[in-house]
């Protein structure tokens, strides 16, 4: 009898914790777009990352520098910035990745006009790009 009551209470506590986590994660989830690239702990990220977490949930910064702003949100599974072609960079249209101003690594804009909305990523096929700052 005692074991059954204890088991029931334990089950209720676990259920409550899981439910509370779900509610809080929905409440805390921002609808603001991710900002790419963003700085986090001396690295630059062009995609969502699990760095700084237990490794199970992707996240992104909502500003260019998470280290100073501490604004973030979880990423949706399908969320990754895509190159936009053509894009305007320093007043010129680019139809493919460019190395102009990028320390010899090809990059692209993730907005149609980098000059007005400076969001970009390195051109890589998969994984996230990290640079030491």
UniProtKB/TrEMBL annotation:
Pfam families reported for this sequence: fn2 (PF00040)
InterPro entries in alphabetical order: FN_type2_dom (IPR000562), FN_type2_sf (IPR036943), Kringle-like (IPR013806), SP_Capacitation_Regulator (IPR051666)
Domain Fibronectin type-II, residue spans: 29-77, 78-125
Keywords, sorted A to Z: Disulfide bond, Repeat, Secreted
Record GO biological process: sperm capacitation
Recorded GO MF terms: heparin binding
Broad class of the protein's primary localization: secreted
Record SMART domains: FN2
Subcellular location: Secreted
GO cellular component: cell surface; extracellular region
Disulphide bonds in the chain: 34-60, 48-75
SUPFAM superfamilies in UniProt: Kringle-like
Family of this protein: Belongs to the seminal plasma protein family.
PANTHER family per UniProt: FIBRONECTIN TYPE-II DOMAIN-CONTAINING PROTEIN, SEMINAL PLASMA PROTEIN
Name of the protein in its database record: Fibronectin type-II domain-containing protein
């Amino acid at each position: 009898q005692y074991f059954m009551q204890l088991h029931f209470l334990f089950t209720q506590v676990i259920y409550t914790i899981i439910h509370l986590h779900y509610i809080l994660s929905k409440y805390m989830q921002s609808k603001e777009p991710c900002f790419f690239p963003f700085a986090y702990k001396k690295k630059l990220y062009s995609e969502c990352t699990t760095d700084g977490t237990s490794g199970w949930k992707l996240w992104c910064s909502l500003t260019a520098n998470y280290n100073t702003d501490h604004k973030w949100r979880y990423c949706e599974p399908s969320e990754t910035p895509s190159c936009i072609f053509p894009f305007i960079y320093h007043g010129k249209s680019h139809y493919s990745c460019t190395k102009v101003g990028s320390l010899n690594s090809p990059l692209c804009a993730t907005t149609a006009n980098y000059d007005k909305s400076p969001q970009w990523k390195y051109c890589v096929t998969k994984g996230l790009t990290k640079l030491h700052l």
